[in-house]
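Hi R.,

Here's the chain you asked about this morning:
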Amino acid sequence: MSTDQRIHVTVWGEFRHEKQNPQVAALYPQGMHEAIAAPLRADAGLAVRTATLDEPEHGLSAAVLDQTDVLTWWGHLAHAEVRDEVIARVRTRVLEGMGLIVLHSAHYSKIFRALMGDTCSLKWREANDKERLWNVCPSHPIAAGLGDYFELPTEEMYGEPFGIPTPDELVFISWFTGGEVFRSGATWRRGHGRIFYFRPGHETYPTYHDQNVQRVIHNAVHWARPSVRIRDDAPNVKALESLPADPDAARRHEH
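And here is the predicted structure, written out as C-alpha cells:
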C-alpha cells in the first residue's frame, strides 16, 4: 500500500490553441495546462502531472487514471477528437470517487455532457467584457480566501440560459459588462465523485495567471479529493435473515 498521502492531480488540456495561435502561445508559452499546473505544484500536498490530447490515449490511460485523485479538464477546439473509450474510462473513475474540475469551454466536452445528461449550451460573446465573479457561497471551501467578488478585466462572455441540471451548490455568479449573468461556479455529485464547473479561462486572455482564479482551482482540487473508491459491480447477495420458502423457485429454475 502506498504511503504517499498527497492528492494526485492530473491536469488535462488540448494543447492545440498554443500551437496554432501566436497570441495564445505568447500568453501560455508552456501551454495552458502548464499554467494551470504550475501554481498547484507550489502546494507540497499535491502531486501534479499533466496530460494532453495528442499523447497516446490522450494521456489518460487506465494506469494514469488509476493513480489520479482529481482530474482538471480544459478543451475547446477538439472535443470530437477525444475517443469515446477514454471518456467512458474517465466517467467510470468519477463514479467511483475521482474528482473532476471542468474549466471554461469544457462545458461542451464529452465528459461533462455525459455526466450532466443535458445540452450544456449557453450564449457567448468575445468582445473584451469585464467579468465580475460574485462569491454567493462564502462558506464553501472552494470560495476560501476570496472576498465578496473578484474581477477579470477582459474575458469571453458566457450568458444564461446554461443547459445544466440544477447544481447541488452554486458558488459563483458572473456579471459581464454587456449586462449578462452566468452561473460560473457550480458543483454536482455523480456517483461517489465530486464535480466542479468553473467558467473563466478563454485562451486569448491571461486568465490562468490571475491569482484569484488560481486560488479557486487550488481550493477546488482540495474540495474534490475522493473520500472513497467504490467500484460498481452490482453483486448478487444472500439474505441476512431467513426467508420463507419460495413455492415457485423450482418452476423458475426449470425455465
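One quick note: The chain has a mean pLDDT of 95.

Cheers,
M.
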